[in-house]
Amino acid sequence: MQGEHFADALIARVRALGHPLCAGLDPHLALIPPLFRRGSMAPGDPRTAEAVESFLDAVVERLAGRVALVKPQSAFFEQLGWRGVRALDRLLARCRALDLLVLLDAKRGDIGSTAEGYARAYLSADAPLRADALTLNPYLGRDSLEPCLKEAGQAGAGVFVLLKTSNPGSRDVQDRPSEGAPVWEHVARSLAEPCDALVGPATGWSALGVVVGATFPAQAERARELLPRSLQLVPGYGAQGGGAADAVRGFVPGPAGREGGVVNSSRALLFPPEAATDRAAHWEAALDASLTAAIGDLASAIATA
Amino acid sequence: MQGEHFADALIARVRALGHPLCAGLDPHLALIPPLFRRGSMAPGDPRTAEAVESFLDAVVERLAGRVALVKPQSAFFEQLGWRGVRALDRLLARCRALDLLVLLDAKRGDIGSTAEGYARAYLSADAPLRADALTLNPYLGRDSLEPCLKEAGQAGAGVFVLLKTSNPGSRDVQDRPSEGAPVWEHVARSLAEPCDALVGPATGWSALGVVVGATFPAQAERARELLPRSLQLVPGYGAQGGGAADAVRGFVPGPAGREGGVVNSSRALLFPPEAATDRAAHWEAALDASLTAAIGDLASAIATA
Questions:
Q1: CA 20 to 30 Å from B233, out of A19, A107, A126, A256?
Q2: Do A169 and B73 touch (CB under 8 A)?
Q3: Which among A71, A107, A150, A164 is annotated as catalytic?
């Protein structure tokens, strides 16, 4: 989607498909099906990266045309060293060829020239590991987000800033009370202006999105009030216990059902028990069934919520 | 130092050398001296990673035996794609061979199995990109730090958790007032227990360190009160404007001068104007002079502060 506005591109696809499922690509080594396993599957074994590549090639082949967005989790590639990052590079190219939008979940955050380095690594038009969007951690403050916001504006890319994450420990910093509101709400307020500056011409949705866990639906509603034009990336649906109705609580009525974000499923989607097989046809059927179930669940939620 | 306790190993070296300088390895592409440049020096050009490798090989050769710790900044490698991460891999091996301790500045932070992925990538005994220590971002809460703390305990590695960073924007989240104290102090309090659990047998310093910018000396003193056994990583000395006396304000009297952390210099140390040359002897002299100046400055500060 080089050059196209990220939020416009994403929402156009979500509307056309009729559901907001984002497929999380977390290649857990212990869960990769026998069909794709090679060698020892230890992180340091060069064949492990090959196994991850062949697994994800097969996965994105099945996802193409059925989901708008995939979300590779950077840690699962980094744990394989540089060969893992090369596998990520190849995955990004594969997704581009299949017209799947990619949100790289790396939760980067740093200052000055280092933040510019992350923008150059993942968002700029000639980035070696160019994704369509990147997750960012706001602990270092507004100035730490600027280089990626600037690059998002120039390259048509998107960012998703962590507000309220799906884990229990998100209360420790994010929920700390400060001047009448939790810390994460102050972060949200600080994003209002750059969010408006990155609104897409076609849909009115901003390329500056936010992250709010499916396990915290009330906070998703509040985030929607504070940032009416921000897309919400909603993790924690499925394996972490958030239901579909809760996952879309921050969504608003749109031309094709409720919209305003994407709901991520990683482990439950990629590794249903039936997919633990060494037979290609069985694996394909299991992945398709898992995908169909998640799509159906979320399509109902945006239709009825 | 595989197996040895990180803080014990680091402080033993700092005492022997008589200064707390940490050499930040931030290979700014635009600043790499003519002597080492290859090809276009664009991030996507494969020769750029080779240039970075040859530059850093020469740098760590000069640092060996003179500094206790080097701090590669992950973004500068990631911006070169997988070839940059391979350059980081080779740098880590080179530093091990030269007996230089390595703190990887990656500011990672995530939850559950993803946080475990980062621990496996950088801290575990068989990590493909094993460093002696890693910087962590605490925005996702105490549970997000657990996997790396656990790995630090098992592998003898260290972590440095961001408290109060050196940039102006650090006020936005870190200084937010909450129940009588800024957010960063609450983060510090939440680290007291794991900090004590990771104290080294030889020195009493903990493998759980913290980050406090040289630009905020009063906060460094406060962090020392809250976490008496945490080593402080102090960025922002030199190029960012913090002086040596301010940089060691969180240090305490020790057997060889004030101790309790390391002070990082990146750009001012690696790229003095005189080093912009294509003559090897000139470059070596310029780097040595820059190193000698920083060492002298910090050695005085711990002797007199």
A1: A107
A2: no
A3: A107
